[in-house]
Amino acid sequence: MVVLNKIYTKTGDAGETALGNGARVAKHSLRVAAYGTVDEANSALGLARLHAGGEMDAALARIQNDLFDLGADLCRPDMERDGEAGYPVLRMVEAQVHRLEKEIDAMNARLQPLRSFILPGGSALSAHLHHCRTVSRRAERLTVELATMESVNQAAVKYLNRLSDWFFVAARIANDEGRADVLWVPGANR
To answer: Measuring CA to CA, which of 20, 73, 130, 175 is 20 to 30 A from 39?
Structure first.
């Protein structure tokens, strides 16, 4: 259980932070950028939830919790040493990826196929979900780059890849099941 009784510690004043395994790294390290961007996506999702209700809000709440799991996964390097931690290390699992895929398929079944690219917008919820999509794509790019240099859980990479797709389809659902999507008109303002 996490206990936060003091919010500032001053341990980061020199530009370093602690990872989940206790190692100290520069705050500008790629690993910190990756899980920091996951945190940013979670914050954007919190704004989206202000406009969601019912089943959509419940799905977004599940994703918010997953994003904390994902941050915990990414902040702990050295997957091969998880057994030495003395406690179960939290890692993303394939079941979380599969859940997103099932939800994408269920939402997509309610939509007409796209015949044009769409612009982010329409309803407030849709606009926020598109913002979540772009932030999660950035988190994915950073995580994929990190994986070229250090060990990264592949379920985490897959989750981020599916997540941006999930947000795209959910944004269409939030636009009256795609009927209120804002379509791109190529060259409209030439």
So the answer is: 175
The pTM of the whole model exceeds 0.85:
yes
Closest C-alpha among 94, 80, 86, 64 to residue 156: 94
Which residue in this structure is represented by tokens 């009784």? 5
189 CB-contact burial (10 Å; exposed 0-12 / middle 13-18 / buried 19+)? exposed
State how far the alpha carbon of 4 is from the alpha carbons of 1, 8, 23, 131, in Å.
10, 10, 20, 30
User: Residue 178 has which token pair?
Assistant: 């795609």
Give tens-digit pLDDT for 145-181. 999 999 999 999 999 999 999 999 999 999 999 999 9
- The residue whose two tokens read 């079944």 is 109
Domains and CATH numbers, the chain: 28-82+89-183 (1.20.1200.10)
Hey, CA dihedral for 142, 147, 153, 155, is it positive or negative?
positive
Q: For the chain (length 190 residues), average pLDDT per consecutive 10?
A: 74 82 88 97 98 98 98 89 81 97 98 94 97 98 97 97 98 97 94
The whole-number pLDDT of residue 13 equals 80
Tokens of 113: 């196929």
Closest residue by Cα to residue 163 from 122, 133, 129: 133
Contact at 8 Å (CB) between 18 and 11? yes
Assign 3-class secondary structure to 48-81: HHCCCCHHHHHHHHHHHHHHHHHHHHHCCCCHHH
